[in-house]
Amino acid sequence: MPEIKKILIIKHGSLGDICLSFEAFASVRKFYKKAKISILTEEKYFKLFLKSKYTNYLIIDNRSNIFESFSLLLKISKEKFDLIIDFQNSNRTSIYNLFFRFFSNAKICSSRPFAHYRYFIPMQGKERIINGLRNQLKLLGIAKKISLNYFWLKTKIKKTSNKKIALFIPGVSKNGKTKQWDPKKYAEVANFLEKLNYGIYLVGTKNDYASLLPIINSCKKVTNLMDKSPPEIIYSLALKSKIIFSNDTGPGHIASLAKKNFIWIINDNKISKANQPIGKHIYILKSKSINNISSQKVINFIKKNKLI
Q: I need a labelling partner for 264 at 20 to 30 A (CA). Which of 222, 246, 273, 278 fits?
């Protein structure tokens, strides 16, 4: 491959998907040290990517109608990218790949059709997203695993009065209700930890109010950061936490980056297997139906593994 001077990386998706791709972004940045890297992503992730330093430029793609998308792709083709890396690997980006094959000279790395360097993803559930992106990058000669730190996500937070903090992330997106563990069970675990002198901290948006309420009602003193917990706050609070509890949700993936004891409560299915974060600090409790997992099972698990 000739010298790579300009790279476009495509990444849309959920916050959790973005988190699971951070390692891949960092690998590209480290391998192509002199290249100018642009990221095509949704506007809501701009601040996050600006903090990351993985990119030189950001391009908005809110995945609107086909005419606006076509206009955007025409503008991008004029930028004369040498390499396009598709981390989204979706039906939509297969159309993007086809467009770029006709209207640019860029080499394309993707798991979708029309790529010059195509990675064939195994059946869903057979490979974690993180590993899939690693394997995709091997096609470009990027094979070395890198040691990541997320100092760029860290921010100052109010000094906590508790020496022991338990962070709870019970909310899910509107489309993720089937992935949610019963908030009342979260409350029972929170109540148990409060009796052991843990400070109970909650994060989420105003849409998570119903999910946070059982904990608020169950515990005597709760630090509620509802609608006050952007990614940098979640990560910084997770750094101070002794233990973290979460569903398969974006804020949970942010918290998992802190590498603290992380209890991930999930359905045992292909989607959850693919979405699993990686690390010795990740403890997974799963069942074919998340509703079958009792609060006592979670309490017994953290006792047995001496996580508190």
A: 222
The contacts of residue 8 (CB under 8 Å, 6+ apart) are: 37, 38, 39, 40, 59, 76, 79, 81, 83, 84, 85, 106
* pLDDT tens column, 223-239: 999 999 999 999 999 99
pLDDT of residue 64: 83
- Out of 3.40.50.2000, 3.40.30.10, 1.10.357.140, 3.40.50.300, the CATH code matching 152-304 is 3.40.50.2000
Supply the pLDDT for residue 10: 98
pLDDT digits (tens, 9 = 90+) for 279-302: 999 999 999 999 999 999 999 999
Residue count (the chain): 308
Specify the CATH class of 6-148 in words: alpha beta
Shared fold status for 6-148 and 152-304:
yes
